[in-house]
Amino acid sequence: MAARTDALTSRRGLTYRRAGSGTPLVLVHGYLGGSRQWQAEIARFSKRFDVIAPDLPGFAGAAHLPAADRIGTFAEAIIDLMDDLGLGRILLLGHSMGGMIVQELAARHPQRIERLVLYGTGPLGLMPDRFEPIETSRERIRAEGVGHTVRRIGATWFREGEHAKGFEVVSSLGAQASEAAALAGLDAMAHWDGRQQMQRLTMPTLILWGDGDRSYRWPQIETLWKGLPNAALAVIPGTAHAVHLEKPGLFHAMLEDFLMADQAAMA
């Protein structure tokens, strides 16, 4: 398949970006994110994998689709896309809320996941010790609008706040969401608890976390690390919630080492 990173549309109307060939690698963005945040990862990993990065319903390029207010609904959208594209077993990465979505997907269809990456995420949607309670975020979206809120929240995802490289990409993607989608995403997280299904995630799993993450604190990461049957942990120093934008070289090296482990063992 020729490399391309322009937006495509599935039969069900979900937008996504795709490039490369080989084993499918599906990248699922988080709250107020979008597929365009993965441009560097698509460029890097499409040399070895068939990289597919969807926009979640209600966000970025898929802002025209109905907002989802449950993590399971988001997971179903990704499963539908996998079926539309004829994907069998895949490598799967989820960031932030996307990490909750891929945990849900992997618990429902563990036989379809070859390797799993849980990046800047946790097993509990209410996110204890988050920089602010979800209810506060909900109130401020209603009072201040999505555009202002995504800049305010997005600044917490970087060590350098609004001055960080990558911040404008994050803020522009988030601003594409409607107020309904932004509120529904918060509801989806608030109602989700994946702790009881962690034992079903038996596939090799990498937990990747920035040590300054203010959304998912260490207790959430530790719960994943100790609770998943086959988990490894990578902590990236000097980063926050957007490691792939703050230290892309280190992020790519950690990810490549994990994803290529089976090929290295056979060499």
TrEMBL record:
Pfam families linked to this entry: Abhydrolase_1
Record-annotated AB hydrolase-1 domain positions: 24-248
InterPro entries, A to Z: AB_hydrolase_1 (IPR000073), AB_hydrolase_fold (IPR029058), AB_hydrolase_sf (IPR050266)
Gene3D superfamilies named among the record's database cross-references: alpha/beta hydrolase (3.40.50.1820)
Listed SUPFAM superfamilies: alpha/beta-Hydrolases
The protein's name: Pimeloyl-ACP methyl ester carboxylesterase
Organism: Roseovarius litoreus
Lineage: Bacteria, Pseudomonadati, Pseudomonadota, Alphaproteobacteria, Rhodobacterales
